[in-house]
Design goal:
- The chain contains 6 helices and 12 strands.
- The chain is an alpha+beta fold.
- It folds into 3 domains: about 80 residues, Orthogonal Bundle (Helix Hairpins), CATH 1.10.287.90; about 110 residues, Immunoglobulin-like (Sandwich), CATH 2.60.40; about 90 residues, Orthogonal Bundle (Cytochrome Bc1 Complex, Chain D, domain 2), CATH 1.10.760.10.
- The strands form 3 sheets. It has a 5-stranded mixed β-sheet with strand order 3-2-1-5-8. The chain has a 5-stranded mixed β-sheet with strand order 4-10-9-6-7. Strands 11-12 form a two-stranded antiparallel sheet.
- The chain is elongated and about 95 Å long.
- Bound molecules: dinuclear copper ion.
Length: about 300
């Protein structure tokens, strides 16, 4: 194990990599020992109890309670250990720390675009070392899969729904980012790099690149808010118009007319823009047009960022 790759696994450079690798090696060695034990016993018995003459007949076999109990109890215990251990690592991989630095990811045939809250954009992912980074990912066309082997993170990227991965890089270096879902002709070339900077270098990189960006996503969202006429129905100051105010909307609990409820996370906000009739909040009517589904993925990300900032 360690930082360098092995015959089994690539180099490890994130906080979760050690846990993923330990579980992998546990399963690998348990499987190896069981395989050798079962196949070895089978070969030994085939030789030891081979038919020696034409008069040879099988002897009756008497049960052995100890052996029978052990081949029930031991595999059950092993499966339970792998389940509990695997579930803990699954949760660790699935739940980003609340102080994570968030970056938007847009996948399309056949490249990646990374957008930072400062407005900077890049085709290579830039992140700070020793800081949790959470990616909010969406596809502009088919399903892709964001995969950084060295970080042991992989997640599908869909059109129409945000998915997330998080990681914390443990050293400054560059690592391969690959697409791990077959997405058409140039799928195998849908590669880029993740560049892990020191915290200072990362701030510098952001500052240098933000100079090129004319607006942050939230600022672009604010422009769309007026361009698309959202203001006619959605206030920013809590005043109730035809639709809910955007003030404090993100993160709040929404009660729907069908009696269900949901937290207004990024996926909810996006859905409420592209398919407003899907869930109607109590106290409102289904008046919002469905025309906003034609907004680009970038515009929708910007609107979500703008609503989240209110
Ligand atoms: Cu994108 Cu494969």
């Amino acid at each position: 194990m360690g930082d360098q790759g092995t015959v089994w696994l690539p180099e490890a450079a994130s906080t979760v990599a050690g846990d993923v690798d330990a579980l992998f090696y546990f399963i690998l060695w348990v499987s190896t020992i069981l395989f050798i034990g079962v196949i070895g016993t089978m070969v030994l018995f085939a030789w030891r109890f081979r038919r020696r003459s034409s008069q040879d007949r099988p002897q009756p076999v008497r049960e052995n309670k100890l052996i029978e109990a052990s081949w029930i109890v031991v595999p059950t215990l092993l499966v339970a250990i792998v389940f509990v251990w695997g579930f803990r690592v699954f949760l660790e991989l699935g739940i980003a720390p609340p102080n994570s630095y968030e970056i938007d990811v847009r996948a399309r045939k056949w490249s990646w675009l990374f957008e930072y809250s400062s407005g900077a954009q890049s085709s290579e992912l830039h992140v700070p070392v020793h800081r949790p980074v959470k990616l909010r990912m969406i596809s502009e066309d088919v399903i892709h899969s964001f995969f950084v082997p060295a970080f042991r993170v992989k997640a599908d990227v869909f059109a129409g729904r945000y998915s997330y991965v998080w990681f914390e890089a443990t050293r400054q270096d560059t690592f391969v980012v690959a697409c791990a879902e077959y997405c058409g002709m140039a799928h195998s070339q849908m590669l880029t790099r993740v560049v892990v900077h020191s915290q200072d270098d990362f701030e510098n990189w952001l500052a240098n690149n933000a100079a090129d960006a004319d607006m942050t996503p939230a600022e672009r969202g604010e422009r769309l808010y007026s361009q698309q006429g959202c203001f006619a129905c959605h206030s920013l100051d809590g005043i109730e118009l035809t639709g809910p105010s955007f003030q404090g909307l993100a993160g709040s609990t929404r009660m729907f007319t069908d009696g269900t409820s949901a937290e207004a996370d990024a996926n909810y906000l996006r859905q409420a823009i592209v398919n407003p009739a899907a869930e109607i909040v109590q106290g409102y009517e289904a008046l919002m047009p469905g025309t906003y589904s034609s907004l680009s993925a970038a515009d929708l990300d910007a609107l979500v960022a703008f609503i989240e900032a209110q």
